[in-house]
C-alpha cells in the first residue's frame, strides 16, 4: 500500500512537471500578436489588464518586443534585462500561464540584434578600399585605420599580396603599380527602436563569436524562464551597409577555392566590367550567404534548442538564400507589409500607401517561408501580418480579412498580428501606440468585433496546422542569378519583401513562372540548391523529403548561372529518368570564377545531358506526369490544398471578382463534399455529379474549408440554384439614434452615412439605425441571407428582437434563421465606425498624444503624423439592403 501511494505521488509530480512545459497549455491555432513594450514601462496591474483582455478577445499568445518609451513616463522605464525588468517578465509568464497564453520574445530590443554588450570587435562591419598609385620607388604610409589586406597590381594584373600579418606602417611597390588597401570599418549602425537599456551597436551577423558573446547576457534569464515562454525571435535582417567580416577571406577561399585578396581591384570598382568580375562578385555574395547561415542562423537555432525553447526567424531582408535560412529554424516567419488592392467589390485601399516606395505584398514572397517549412517538415509557418495595412485609425476588419486569407493561401498557418502595444489602463485614449502597426490592442476601434475575426482565424488554422501540404511540383529558386545581378562597390543583394522584391522576384523568370503556375491551378513549392541535395528518390521516379512529402516534377525557370554540383545532380536525375525540365532555356554559365578547366568541362558535359529537357511551357509535361491541377483557379479562386488520410482538405478564398456561384470541380474530392464556413461554423454537404462537379456559392471576399467525404444521403442542391433578390424597403422613415443622446437623433428616407450631418464629424462610437419593413408570405421562405451595400465599419444586426451577430467583413451579409421573419418586421442595425474622425479632432485641438521617443509617431508615408487636415471619414451605413435565398 505504501509503495502504491508512493507511485501515485510520483505520478502527480511528473504530471505537474509535464504540464508546466506542455505547449498544449496554449493555442497556436488562435492568432498571436507582437506585444510592443514602450520603455518597458510595464506594471503588474497593466500586465494583468493587457493579458486578460487579450485572452478574452481570443488571442493564443503574445510576442514581447521592448522598444523606446513614452515621454513623461521616464520614471517607470525599466532597463532591459535589469532586475526590475526580469521581475516583470517572470510575472508575465505567471499570468500568461494562468490565462493559457503563449509567450515569445525578441532576443533583444527593437531590431536588428545588438545593444550595449556589442563592442567594436563584435559590431557590424563594412570595407573601404583605398588605392595608392606608385609614382616612384619609395615607401608609402598606410591609412591610419584597421588594414585587413593589401595587394599590388601592375598593369591591371595581380603582382603581389601583402599578407595581413606582414603589413607594417609603410608599404612599397614598383613604379607604375597600384596598391589596393582594404580597410575594415564599423557601420556605426545602432539598434533601431531600442528600449531603455537596449541601446547600442548592431551585431556582426556573419560572426559566430559575435553571436556567442551577445547571447551570453540572456543565459541567466532563460535558465530561470519556463513555459509558457516558447520561442526566441530574430526580426528581419535590416543591417545596413554591412559587407565585411574578419573571417571573409578565410571563408571565401574555403568555399570558392581561390584568394579574394588577389582581386581587391574588383571589390574597389563601382561596377563589374566583365563576366569574370561579375563571377567574383557572385562568389563574394555566396560567401556572405554561407556565413549568415553557418555563423548566425544555425548557431542561433541550435543554441535556442539547447536552452529548451523554439527558434523563430525572419530571414528576409538579408543577403542570404532565404529558403536555406528559413529552413534552418523551428518556425520560419514571413511578413505581409502594406496595402494590396484586392479585386473584391467594396474593398478599401488606403490611397496614401506608396506602392512604388514600399511595394505590393505578394503571395510568392510568402511561399519562400512555407516552402522551406514544407520541405523540412516544420509544422508551423508564421507571418508578421497587417504591417502598414492602412494609416493609423483608419483600418477596418473588412480590410484585414482578405490579408489573412492571402497569408493562408501563401502557406502560413500561425498568424501574428502586427501588432498590439502595451498601454496602461490609466492612459487616456488613444493610449500608447507603435508607429508602424495596425492596432490590435484594447484601444482599437475594432476591438469589440475582433473576437469574431480571431475565431475565424482559429478555425482555419486548426485545419491548416493539422495536415501537410499537398504539392506535386518543385520549382528551383535561382539565387545565383540574383548574386550575379548589377554588382559593384559595397553592393549586397538584400532580399527584402517590400519594393525591391520587384527586382529579385516579380520581374524575373522565376517570378513569372511561379505566378503562371499559381494562376493555372498548380500547387508549387520552391527549392534551393541545398534543399535539393537532401531529396530522396523513390522507386516511382519521384522525389521525397525527409518529412514524407512527395513531388512529381522539378521545374527550373530560366536559370543563367548554376553550380557544378547542381548541374551534375540534375544530369544524374535525368539519366535516371526523373522529370527535370528547364523553362525558356538551359543554364548558360558556370556560377563561380574559381572553377578549374576540368570542372568547367564537367559542367559542360552535364549540360549536354540536359539538352532534350528544355520546354517553352510546362503544362504538357505536367499533364503527362498527372500533376494535380485545380480548375477553380480559372475562376480566380485562390486555394491551398492539404493531405489527409481520406483524401484532401482545402482552404479556398475568393479574392477576385470573377466568380460568385456556379458548378465547380476540386481535383482531389470524390464521392461527397463538405463545405464549412469558418465565419459562421455552418457546414453543408453535397454529392458530386457524375462529372465530379457540384454547385458552389462563394462570393467575392468569402472563404471556405472544403473536404472530401463519402457520399451522403441528405445534401444541398448539386445543381445551380436561381437567385431571388428581395429589396428590404422601410415602411416609414429610418431612425438613427446615438448612445446616451451624445448626438442629436437623425431621421432619413434611405440609409445614409451619419457623417452627412456635420454635427457628427468628430464622432467615434456607435449609432443605431432602426425601421420597420414588410415581407409577403411568398418572400419569407426566400429571405435566407441579408446583404448590405456599404458598412463603415461593422454592424450588429437585430431583427424582431433577436440578435443575429456581427457583419464586419466582405461580402457584407448575414444568414437569417428559419422562422425569424414575419410579414411585419423590425430591424436594428448598431454600427461602429473607425476612430479617424476622433483623432482628427484631437490633432485640430493640438492635444498632445504623440509624445514618444525616437521616431515618435509617423503616418503611412513616414511623415510626422497629423490628422488635423484629414477629410471626414464616412461612418454608418449607406445604400440598399436586400435578402436572397
TrEMBL record:
- The portions of this protein that span the membrane are none
Q: Is Signal among this UniProt entry's keywords?
A: yes
Segment forming the signal sequence: 1-20
The organism's place on the tree of life at top rank? Bacteria
Q: Transport as a keyword? A: no
Q: Mind listing the GO molecular function terms for this protein?
A: hydrolase activity
Which SUPFAM superfamilies does the annotation name?
Answer: Galactose-binding domain-like
The UniProt keyword set, sorted, is:
Hydrolase, Signal
* Record-linked PANTHER family: DNA-BINDING PROTEIN (PUTATIVE SECRETED PROTEIN)-RELATED (PTHR36848), SECRETED PROTEIN (PTHR36848:SF2)
> What name does UniProt use for this protein?
Glycosyl hydrolase
